[in-house]
Amino acid sequence: MSTAISTTPLPPVNPSLDEAVTLIAKALAAGNVNDEKVRQIVREEIGTPRKISISLNKAPAYEVSGCHPMMPKVLALASAGINVLMVGPAGAGKTHIAHDVANAVGRPFGSISLSAGITESHLTGRLLPVGEGGRFGYIPSPFVQAYENGGVYLFDELDAADPNVLLVVNAAMANGGFDVEARVAGGLPSRVNKHPDCLMLGAANTYGTGADMQYAGRNVLDAATLDRWYVVNIGYHTEYEGSLAGVIPDNSIRMWEPSKASHAQIEERAQKLVTWVWGLRTRVEEKKIRRIISTRMCEKAIKALTAGLTVREISVDLLSGWTPEEKSAVGISA
């Protein structure tokens, strides 16, 4: 799935933020103000929200306004075939971003919170007595439906998941399909093949390093699990919060935008990135750092380039969650 993302130019602020504040102050002095009146002044005096136009596979462009500044980056990566793990504190907007991605691509949205009690069958589906005479039949899970038919699916609270559940997620992400033996009872092939328009997202509060004082219910994520995801950091964003409250206009938010590069430039940058990964692998092995520098890292880096990310941005993202000591050991400034 190819993606092109553009943002419309910032409309002029007319008359100005100061003048809007003056109008609100006058309305307050006259006793003629309420929440709706303030919103009306902001809309009329500051300008219209900036919209993000997204075009997928030459389909009609979708417009998304009022979204988190990092939503275009998540969309661009996911549309390039990358499994995106959004990491950030509680309430930063990760789930909202996932919903906006689904709206942008015009696909159904599904999610599951991988908290305690979730088992493999929540993802693979179940055999239930739904047939005539109590005959057992296969009932697909929302994940299987999204995986097989297309959709945006969010694995929420990924760093709270049971390791056995993550084995199912790992298989689905890496191999273009996975096996569900229960499907045979329903007359279906055991193999579930991934639809080209299935986008998989994850959300977590930690980098898979386990529980801390703030997020006590988190588990250590296996290195093979982490290797399958491209991490995007989603922090609290004051400009976005201000826009939600009507204090800051949408058109003043600095949104993530893809870099412009020709095919030749992307090829040159890809070579540079792969060489960087090779050097990183050598230093990690020499220093005996417990980090995996896999072929999949090279693949993620190249796909991220095609999604419009810069070399600098990708090299920072690929080291998300590394400690300052680990970075220093391989010669990278923290």
Query: How do the SSEs run, as a string of H and E?
Result: EHHEEHEHEHEEHEHEEEHEHHHHH
Q: Can you tell me the CATH class of the largest domain?
A: Alpha Beta
Largest sheet: 5 strands, parallel
What general form does the structure show? globular
- Unreliable residue stretches: 6-16, 56-60
CATH-defined superfamily of the largest domain = P-loop containing nucleotide triphosphate hydrolases
Query: What is the oligomer described by this structure?
Result: single chain
Rounded mean pLDDT score:
84
At CATH level 3, the topology of the largest domain is: Rossmann fold
Structural class: alpha/beta
Domain module count: 3
Task: Please give the alpha-carbon distance between the first and last residues.
Answer: 34 Å
List keywords for this structure.
single chain; 334 residues; alpha/beta; Rossmann fold; 3 domains; 5-stranded parallel sheet; 3-stranded antiparallel sheet; 13 helices; 12 strands; globular
Report on this model:
Strands 5-8-11-4-12 form a five-stranded parallel β-sheet, with helices on both faces. A three-stranded antiparallel β-sheet has the order 1-2-3, covered by helices on one side. The chain has helices spanning 17-29, 35-46, 71-79, 94-105, 121-124, 142-149, 163-174, 223-226, 238-244, 263-287, 295-306, 311-317, 324-329; strands spanning 3-7, 51-56, 62-65, 84-87, 109-113, 126-129, 136-139, 151-156, 177-179, 191-193, 198-204, 230-233. The protein has 13 helices and twelve strands. It is of the alpha/beta class. It has three domains: 1-66, no CATH class; 70-236, Rossmann fold (3-Layer(aba) Sandwich); 259-334, no CATH class. The radius of gyration is 23 Å and the shape is globular.
